[in-house]
């Protein structure tokens, strides 16, 4: 008889093995799992003497009267739960707010920590028995593991905001609303019925099949392949077993999350966090042990679980692993902190969860620099994490990380913030130089190519994030955009790079979400956030509208006369506003600062159209720029990125970060610049340039600040040439003995009303709070400062000249109330001379 029983057991086990999916390596064997709470169990929580295995959950008699419950032998908790919610979840809010129900309540009778694990309804016919246990927590409840508020406990408590949502209807309508969920098909996900046995079963509910704990977990199964690590009772693979394809869910290959969350298919499969050709770094032994990952697990196999945990640290949002500001290790509670999830890997080797970070940008250290984006909630005006995707207008907002302008500061500057996911969509970023590249063949990096043929096309690290393209009602400097075209999605490999595309195609489109009137009505105060540049630096007290500044009007390209740049042309009266010219001391004269003048801009939004011929330069004169901007064929047609100037410090002669990553995360320099920029930037003597000067990382100082350099007095290398004096930059250095950029150029060189960013103290206007055409620096040798655009300025332009045709008489006072002198005598001998400018 015993032999027969053994045979039956062996046959049963064989049949169970045949019933398991190929490659799943999971069997139903509760006796050899942590759910064997009998004295024979292998776990730390078990009975001191009770030998029955099933009795802790089931009884054949006197079971709880719970619909669909499997002869349940425990009371249900009467606790009130705080359920998971977020602005990006599209499940029924009424169902979610009702809290856990259905079979999930069975799991919580142990896992919420409110009831002793040994308490059962009946044991051997005796009601209401408390089975003596060992290894339990206070009062015989579930132990707290690494800590009750950590992500490494299965005593979930009654606060379920940090746990995967349950007890909601999962149907095709939900999948449509979300945009990244697979509709239940009855094969992978669905409600069980005769002949229908989905891999992930939903529990029948009043409005259709509901997601419950038992959808993902089967409390009786275990993994037979020890190399895969603990299975966590998951019905499907805990990890990605083969390179994701982005197509239909593969039971054998795909991580269990992808059974429901398709994450835009190939967009996730080829992302930098899922692509085996990119995310091949492995977790350290300590990190793997804490997470219960197999030894040497690569990031791509961890997949979703590298950044998310279905039962994460309390205080984290959107199930982000270690996503709080807790200083404990592992984190215990705390406030939401998205960046902490990213810092698990994007940090120096000593603090990273990875064994090798050579190819992983160290973002954390940049945010520790003196000037940095206010990434911490404590650095933001609200004092808490305001960032919230899934807000604003439109459908499927969560999948594209859409956020309402109000949360960026529009209408309430206290909402201004920055988080990693303001600029990056971690489900879609790719390690390619262009956002629309074929990510199956990664590049050496995900940031732009800083080489000849330079463009402003968005790189792979910006793929799939949101942005804005300004729409203008006028072209004059000071004309703010009237509206913005919102960008979302990505278009996939080979997507159009046209600015009018529905998705982000330019880096500046991401930057302008915050640095324009899209995100505010009144410009924010400089220094109002932690890590920011102090107010008053370079006489800047408020942020400037960079969408206004960088506008590149098509009608202002090249070298031409314009009438709509914002420069003044007309009659000047002295005293200002006097009634009758020539009477009562009213002096009038006409000025024209529009002839040979046009708007100037760094080519961030569009090129300048000012090629070598327009500049009256030859192909051997491109040495005024440093590589890669000195390619002959590119002058006038090339564009650039915001991050060519903003980011961590770079070498003296280029903008490639010296050691940190590309991107405006942080810098040792004010305004998160890659070099020094102030009223003293220039040269203290001929050939002695300001150390680490920002301008000279792209503009070769030998052409501007050295009378004997490449651009010596006799050589023609810049547009500031003529009058028989040759290179007029070098000429000024020779005569004055030093030079400062802001003497003649605007102090915020994004864009300007005059060509070549030239200040004109004969025509100070609304940008400085004055009427257009106002002359300043009157009968004094003192410099003029009126931030943000005028800092230590001295230049007065009477008439603008075309490139290469400047003369000393182009400069000087336009007339009263200035001294009215021009040319060399004005510069050197008059009471407005600049011979001793600081």
TrEMBL record:
<dbReference type="Pfam" id="PF09699">
    <property type="entry name" value="Paired_CXXCH_1"/>
</dbReference>
<dbReference type="InterPro" id="IPR036280">
    <property type="entry name" value="Multihaem_cyt_sf"/>
</dbReference>
<dbReference type="GO" id="GO:0016491">
    <property type="term" value="F:oxidoreductase activity"/>
</dbReference>
<dbReference type="InterPro" id="IPR010177">
    <property type="entry name" value="Paired_CXXCH_1"/>
</dbReference>
<keyword id="KW-0732">Signal</keyword>
<feature type="region of interest" description="Disordered">
    <location>
        <begin position="179"/>
        <end position="198"/>
    </location>
</feature>
<feature type="region of interest" description="Disordered">
    <location>
        <begin position="811"/>
        <end position="838"/>
    </location>
</feature>
<dbReference type="InterPro" id="IPR051829">
    <property type="entry name" value="Multiheme_Cytochr_ET"/>
</dbReference>
<protein>
    <recommendedName>
        <fullName>Doubled CXXCH motif domain-containing protein</fullName>
    </recommendedName>
</protein>
<feature type="domain" description="Doubled CXXCH motif">
    <location>
        <begin position="298"/>
        <end position="349"/>
    </location>
</feature>
